[in-house]
Amino acid sequence: DTAVSQTPKYLVTQMGNDKSIKCEQNLGHDTMYWYKQDSKKFLKIMFSYNNKELIINETVPNRFSPKSPDKAHLNLHINSLELGDSAVYFCASSPHRGTYTEAFFGQGTRLTVV
Amino acid sequence: DQQVKQNSPSLSVQEGRISILNCDYTNSMFDYFLWYKKYPAEGPTFLISISSIKDKNEDGRFTVFLNKSAKHLSLHIVPSQPGDSAVYFCAASLTSGTYKYIFGTGTRLKVLA
């Protein structure tokens, strides 16, 4: 019973395409995140949602659009994919804002744009 | 502007010895610090954390030390085991206001048998 699951695990696509990555958590957490790990292995936050409301948008190009249909799901849609979007994308969740708790991560989606 | 830094990209240690991983941060408002471990092709997994009101937290072989005046934390693993070989990320967060975890660039630990 996976706590935070992402699909797909691998995604290879051509430049200019539109793609989506899905994330689901079964932990009952209020907050969900998308992180990007680039070629330098730096884990950088992209978005955070709390109870379906966007609370963090870290200067990500507007080709990236997160969508949270409910508290347990946070999907990432990427339009007009570029070579520089190639990275590993991690979804994560945490219980509440304002508490000393850790985030739980999914296994990652390796996106390769060719 | 990287607020959390891990200046050692890699570290090799003999099995049974102590591994010390270091992390520095710049924002004195951070009040919660975490260490994550990451194996290839997996997501980061939580290891240990410490709040800013403490200077030490221990969990089995893992101890985290926090020096607020120096804005420095470290993770000690003793004794180190080959299964500890992984990339370790330090992270910091602010529990008030906009809540997010800010990660360092990671240190690859290799424990030699």
In short:
The complex is a heterodimer of chains A (114) and B (113). By secondary structure, chain A is mostly beta strands.
General description of the model:
The complex is a heterodimer of chains A (114) and B (113). By secondary structure, chain A is an all-beta fold. Chain A is 0% helix and 55% strand. Chain A has no helices and eleven strands. Chain A has strands at residues 4-7, 10-13, 19-25, 31-37, 43-50, 53-57, 64-70, 73-78, 87-94, 104-105, 109-113. In chain A, strands 2, 4, 5, 6, 9, 10 and 11 form a seven-stranded mixed sheet that branches. In chain A, strands 1-3-8-7 form a four-stranded antiparallel sheet, with no helix packed on it. Chain A is globular and about 40 Å long. The termini of chain A are far apart. With 113 residues, chain B is mostly beta strands. Helices cover 0% and strands 54% of the residues of chain B. Chain B is built from no helices and eleven strands. Chain B has strands at 4-5, 10-14, 19-25, 32-38, 45-51, 56-59, 62-67, 72-77, 86-93, 101-103, 107-112. In chain B, the strands form two sheets. In chain B, strands 2, 4, 5, 9, 10 and 11 form a six-stranded mixed sheet that branches. Chain B starts with a strand and ends with a strand. The relative contact order of chain B is 0.34. The mean pLDDT of chain B is 94. Chain A binds chain B through residues 4, 31, 33, 35, 40-45, 48, 50, 55-56, 90, 92, 94, 97-100, 102-108, and chain B through 32, 34, 36, 41-46, 49, 51, 87, 89, 95-96, 98-103, 105-106.
